[in-house]
């Protein structure tokens, strides 16, 4: 029986979520199906681009978290903690 691989299978392969046996079958499918190979190459490129994305929270978001933490009941003011 010949297994047909989908784009979902290719994505799992790109993210190394397939078994060694499936890897061999997917690699064979990539060699014989140009559309699947094109999708694979695009998925590799997108993964590389996504790995370069750096995100940082806005300063006001960080300040809001710090303010909340400072006034949280589990974090009493210093004068109460040392008594």
TrEMBL record:
It comes from the Bacteria. Residues 61-83 are annotated as: Disordered. This is Anti-sigma factor.
